Every structure is written in structure tokens, then in C-alpha cells.
């Protein structure tokens, strides 16, 4: 490999000589051999492949550029050390600063000027806005007072509108009762109950009290009227059934008319449920043993249970022989008998009416709930009086 390398280097002397001719020392030694660093450079850049000789031109250009750069740097160093004029030194050093640095400095200066301009405009706008706000403050204060007055007037207007609505509903109920338009009267009472619910969150205590008194007045009139009509119809239908129904018992001659009245009275009483709960202030009882809260008994079922409640209190309160603390099974058995005797009527006659009225009520379950509440009250009373009252003197 040494012989070919020597030939390649010798063949390239003519190409390398221009680049080395400007140097102060001759790279060729006295014995005609090239210095070691030149041989290493040629071997590293060109190698031993003859096809790599085309790289000689590029290598020559590279060496020429590096030589020129070294000469310029040498001139600068000589100028600094030999005392060239200061202006020449500054000019030489400035010429070596990259153009992008100058451009960046120029852009930074321009940005600084723009920022100062924007800050100046911001200060002017801030001062103008502050002056405007100070000038508008009296107007804002005056407008706030006017808005407060308008709010007070608006609340007074709503108060008067509510009073007018109560009077309107009251007059409507009175007119409907005079013309025997029960359904319209029931709807007006229901509207008054909705108004009562809407006022519960307000602070108008006097208005709420007036509305509640008016609602209670008309509700009692309607409820008493409808309850009386329902009890009369139920009595003619032989309600309640104290013993198992007998098939041979002949129905009343106007049974279809009675069922038509029953079909009308039950939904009307259901429409009074909201006002009835408001007036009596009935709330769901808390749940027991994981069961859902008990809702108030529906109004038609309350009226239907009244005759059974009277009989229960007659037999199992006071000094009656049937009122015995030692015999709680007596009233429990009686309650179970009433449930069984009246379940068929509730399922066949009352439940279809409730379904057509879209009432989510089970008639049979409501009857059982009402009767069990009687037994529950009796049991609670007896439990409280066990320690102080003898069976013969128990009262309720």
C-alpha cells in the first residue's frame, strides 16, 4: 500500500502546489519528500482509490478558503499589535459581526419603540376611561336608586296581582256553587291551592295567612258537600259491608244512577287532595324499617272509612266490654274481617274509577292502610296506658 500511495501523492503535486505556493515555507523537504502532515491529509481526504482523485478539486478549494481566512485573521492580529489607527481596528472588527446579529438588534430596537408607543396609548386610554367613569358615577348612583324604586313597585304590583287573583278565584267558586258547576268550583279551589304552594317560599306572611284562610273556607264547603253526596251514594249501595256480601241481596232500583254519581264524586274529591293536605298540614310519615314514607290517605278513601272508623271507636274505646287490654286480637280480627268483606267492592267498583282518573292509587291497599291506621292508633294508646290503667277503665 505504500508504493501506490506515493504515486498518488506524487501525481497530485501539481494540484497541491498552487495552494501551498503562497505559504512562507516550502512543504517539500530537501530530500524531495512531502512532510508527514501533508501525506496524512491527502491519505485522509483522498485515500488509495484512484476514483477518489476527483475530490482533489474540492480539497483544493477548501484549503484555499482556509488559507485566506487565516491570512485575514493574521492581518487583524497584526493591526491590533502594531498600533493601526483605532478607526481601522473598529472597522475590521465590525466587519466580522454576523449580519443576523445586527438584524436582531434592529428588530429589538423597533419592538422596544412599538412597546413604548403602545404603553403611551394605554396610559392615555386609561386616563380617558377614568375621567369617563368619574363623570358617569353620579348617573350610576341615580340609576341605582331608580332601579330600587322600580323593584319595590314591581313587588307591590305582584302583591296586588296576587290579591286580585285570590279575589277572582273566590268569586269564581261562589258563582260556580250558585250555578251547581261543581267541577269548575273544584278547579278554582285547586288553582288556589297551587297559588298557596307558590307563596310558601315568599316572605309575605300576611298574604299567605289570608290565602290559607280563604282556601280553607271554600275547601270546607266543597268537601262537606261532596263528602255528604258520596256518603249518601255509598249508603244506598249498602256500604260498608259488615259481613260477607250476599249474592241474593237485591241491588237498589237506581243502581246505575248511583254508580254514575260515584263515577263523578270520586274524581272530584281526588281534585281536592292538594288543598286538603295543605289545610290539614299532612306530611308524609317517616319511613319505618326501610319502607318508603307513608303518604296521606286519599280523600275519597278517608270518607269511605268514616263509618268503619265510627264502629271501631264505638266497640273498642270507653267502657265497652269489647275494649279489653287482654284481648287485642278482638279489634285486630275485626279489622281483618272488614278488609275481607269490602275488598271486592273496592276492586270492582272503586279501582276502575281511580284508573280512569289517572290516580296512581290502589283502592284495596288504601282501604287496608286506613283500617290498619285505626289498629295502630289503638295499639299505641293501649301501650301507653298499660302501666297506669286497668282493662275495665281503659278509655280512648
Automatic annotation (TrEMBL):
GO-annotated biological processes: endoplasmic reticulum to Golgi vesicle-mediated transport; regulation of ER to Golgi vesicle-mediated transport; retrograde vesicle-mediated transport, Golgi to endoplasmic reticulum
A Pfam family of this chain: RINT1_TIP1
Membrane-spanning segments: none
Lineage: Eukaryota, Metazoa, Chordata, Craniata, Vertebrata
Coiled-coil boundaries: 53-125
One GO cellular component term noted in the UniProt record for this chain: Dsl1/NZR complex
Region (Disordered): 1-34
Domain of life: Eukaryota
Stretches with biased composition (Low complexity): 13-22
Keywords for the protein's UniProt record, in alphabetical order: Coiled coil
Protein name per the record: RAD50 interactor 1
Native source species: Anguilla anguilla
Amino acid at each position: 500500500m505504500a508504493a501506490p500511495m506515493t504515486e498518488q501523492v506524487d501525481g497530485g503535486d501539481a494540484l497541491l502546489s498552487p495552494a501551498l505556493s503562497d505559504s512562507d515555507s516550502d512543504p517539500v523537504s530537501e530530500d524531495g519528500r512531502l512532510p508527514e502532515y501533508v501525506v496524512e491529509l491527502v491519505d485522509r481526504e483522498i485515500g488509495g482509490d484512484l476514483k477518489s482523485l476527483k475530490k482533489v478539486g474540492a480539497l483544493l478549494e477548501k484549503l484555499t478558503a482556509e488559507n485566506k481566512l487565516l491570512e485575514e485573521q493574521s492581518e487583524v492580529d497584526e493591526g491590533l499589535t502594531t498600533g493601526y489607527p483605532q478607526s481601522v481596528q473598529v472597522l475590521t472588527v465590525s466587519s466580522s459581526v454576523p449580519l443576523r446579529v445586527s438584524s436582531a438588534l434592529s428588530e429589538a430596537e423597533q419592538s422596544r419603540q412599538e412597546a413604548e408607543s403602545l404603553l403611551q396609548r394605554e396610559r392615555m386610554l386609561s386616563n380617558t376611561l377614568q375621567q369617563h367613569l368619574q363623570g358617569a358615577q353620579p348617573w350610576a348612583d341615580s340609576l341605582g336608586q331608580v332601579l330600587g324604586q322600580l323593584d319595590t313597585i314591581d313587588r307591590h304590583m305582584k302583591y296586588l296581582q296576587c290579591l286580585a287573583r285570590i279575589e277572582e278565584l273566590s268569586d269564581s267558586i261562589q258563582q260556580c256553587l250558585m250555578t251547581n258547576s261543581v267541577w269548575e268550583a273544584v278547579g278554582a279551589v285547586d288553582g288556589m291551592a297551587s297559588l298557596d304552594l307558590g307563596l310558601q317560599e315568599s316572605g309575605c306572611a300576611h298574604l299567605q295567612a289570608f290565602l290559607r284562610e280563604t282556601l280553607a273556607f271554600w275547601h270546607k264547603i266543597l268537601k262537606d258537600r261532596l263528602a255528604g253526596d258520596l256518603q249518601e251514594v255509598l249508603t244506598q249501595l249498602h256500604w260498608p259491608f259488615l259481613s260477607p256480601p250476599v249474592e241474593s241481596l237485591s241491588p237498589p232500583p237506581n243502581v246505575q244512577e248511583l254508580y254514575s254519581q260515584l263515577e263523578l264524586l270520586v274524581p272530584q274529591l281526588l281534585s281536592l287532595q292538594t288543598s286538603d293536605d295543605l289545610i290539614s298540614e299532612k306530611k308524609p310519615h317517616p319511613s319505618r324499617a326501610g319502607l318508603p314514607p307513608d303518604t296521606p290517605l286519599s280523600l275519597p278513601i278517608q270518607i269511605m272509612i268514616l263509618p268503619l272508623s265510627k264502629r271501631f271507636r264505638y266497640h273498642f274505646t270507653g267502657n265497652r266490654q269489647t275494649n279489653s287490654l287482654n284481648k287485642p286480637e278482638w279489634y285486630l280480627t275485626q279489622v281483618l274481617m272488614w278488609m275481607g268483606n269490602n275488598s271486592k267492592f273496592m276492586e270492582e267498583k272503586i279501582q276502575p274509577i281511580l284508573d280512569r282518573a289517572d290516580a296512581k292509587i290502589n283502592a284495596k291497599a288504601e282501604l287496608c292502610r286506613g283500617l290498619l291506621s285505626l289498629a295502630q292508633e289503638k295499639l299505641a294508646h293501649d301501650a301507653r296506658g298499660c302501666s297506669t290503667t286497668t282493662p275495665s277503665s281503659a278509655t280512648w
